[in-house]
Design brief:
The protein is built from 12 helices and 19 strands. By secondary structure, it is an alpha/beta fold. The chain folds into 2 domains: about 230 residues, Spore Coat Polysaccharide Biosynthesis Protein SpsA, Chain A, CATH 3.90.550.10; about 160 residues, 2-Layer Sandwich (60s Ribosomal Protein L30, Chain: A), CATH 3.30.1330.50. The chain binds cytidine-5'-triphosphate and magnesium ion. The site of cytidine-5'-triphosphate has 23 residues, from helix 4.
Length: about 400
């Protein structure tokens, strides 16, 4: 078939502005939703009825590896379009030129796309291809958005030279659609005259060929700087969860009484393998309840010498790391100590503040209560004390 429209997926950059955050990996090879970034643009492009084939431009030193990955991802031709690959060049425009060389004779128009824009929508691809097709007089159709900031042109010293009229400015994106013949000629001229550009539409402008800006897509963002990586976080909805913890320690031991990491001291010595902080133990079990990850007895066995006399604050630290790793967001904790003696009211504020600090929670999201059992049961008989903890969180 003649008059085919092909996409060129540029994936041969080095991602220098991102290198520190990625450990040197070029951004288009970062994995998102189980595939490299470049694959997502390919899927959006191939799903458009306007697109017949794709040329992937990979870095020379990664081409074999990337081709193998492409083969795997496109096994049984999932994309449903024809595929070619090319070797990237030193500048973006060199990579485009190399991509153009791989287009088949049937191809008459082309969509050049930065694979660093993985949120590309198929709708935008189709709108661009249609707009180019519907206006035979036009030499390029590109997506753009009005800018919200006032833009200044500055000189090398940062001194303002000019302020272009904002209403006439557009921040442009890719894909950029062109008739193949015109784009090839523009690239040839750029080579001959040593032009240096950051997008293909610039070449058309320099050749004084008309380029139309149509409405772009605010979501079609280019992953450029380290902070843009946050956009690649999977945003699964968080669900509320609740954990419950309960613990008892006997009096008559050798450990000074600790509650919530605060030393209470006094005559009631606790019997325990660790420091015997009954409140932090209940709290840890409640946190582990949110994670559905067992209990402290299982994590920190009381026959393991390494936990002999250990501070429960250290154990809580470990549980907090587990919580962070599981993506748990603690919202609120409600703690109660049940003890006949000692009197806890004088310590309540210090305990509450310390727990808030340990959990990195605002004070108003840490509740602490103390009660007796009216001289009933083992707490009433001063045989020991107990604590319960409720943690609510999102996960
Ligand atoms: N690109 C390319 N070949 C080059 C340079 C860039 O194929 N020689 C591609 C990039 O992979 C990217 C797109 O062109 O998909 C846009 O370029 P840019 O955002 O500047 O990416 P990088 O050049 O990789 O990043 P940086 O400028 O931070 O080094
Ligand atoms: Mg670049």
């Amino acid at each position: 078939m003649q008059n085919e429209c092909w996409g060129i997926i540029l994936a041969a950059g080095q991602g220098r502005r991102m290198a520190e955050a990625t450990g040197g990996e070029a951004k288009q090879f970062l994995r998102w939703k189980n595939a490299p970034l470049w694959w997502h643009s390919a899927q959006a492009m191939a799903a458009s009825p306007a697109v017949h084939g794709l040329v992937f431009v990979f870095p020379a030193d990664k081409k074999d590896e990337a081709e193998a990955e492409l083969k795997k991802l496109d096994k049984s031709n999932n994309l449903g379009v024809r595929i070619a690959t090319a070797e990237g060049g030193a500048r973006r425009q060199d990579s485009v030129r190399h991509g153009l060389e791989e287009l088949p004779p049937e191809c008459s128009s082309v969509l050049v796309h930065d694979s660093a824009r993985p949120f590309l929508s198929t709708a935008l691809v189709t709108r661009l291809a249609r707009a180019l097709h519907d206006d035979p007089g036009i030499c390029g159709v590109i997506p753009g958005l009005p800018v919200t900031d006032t833009i200044k042109e500055v000189d090398d010293d940062g001194v303002v030279v000019e302020t272009p009229v904002r209403s006439q400015l557009r921040a442009v994106q890719t894909p950029q659609a062109f008739p193949l013949e015109e784009l090839r000629m523009a690239h040839a001229q750029a080579e001959a005259e040593g032009w240096d550009v950051t997008d293909d539409a610039s070449l058309m402008e320099r050749s004084e060929l008309p380029v139309l800006v149509i409405e772009g897509d605010p979501e079609n963002i280019k992953i450029t700087n380290p902070q843009d990586l946050a956009m690649l976080m999977e945003n699964k909805p968080l669900l509320p969860c609740c954990g419950y913890g309960y613990d008892v320690h006997a009096y008559g031991g050798s450990r000074p009484l600790m509650l919530g990491g605060v030393e209470i001291g006094g005559d009631y010595l606790v019997s325990a393998h660790s420091d015997g902080d009954v409140l932090l133990h209940a709290l840890m079990d409640a946190l582990l309840g949110c994670l559905a990850a067992g209990d402290i007895g299982h994590l920190f066995p009381d026959n393991d010498p390494k936990f002999d006399g250990i501070s429960s604050v250290v154990l809580l630290d470990h549980v907090m790391s587990m919580a962070a790793e599981a993506g748990l967001r603690i919202c609120h904790v409600d703690l109660t100590v049940i003890a006949q003696k000692p009197k806890l009211a004088p310590h309540a504020d210090a305990i509450r503040r310390n727990v808030a600090r340990l959990l990195d929670l605002p004070l108003e999201h840490v509740a602490f209560k103390a009660t007796t059992e009216e001289k009933l049961g083992f707490t009433g008989e001063l045989k020991g004390l107990k604590a319960v903890a409720l943690v609510s969180a999102m996960r």
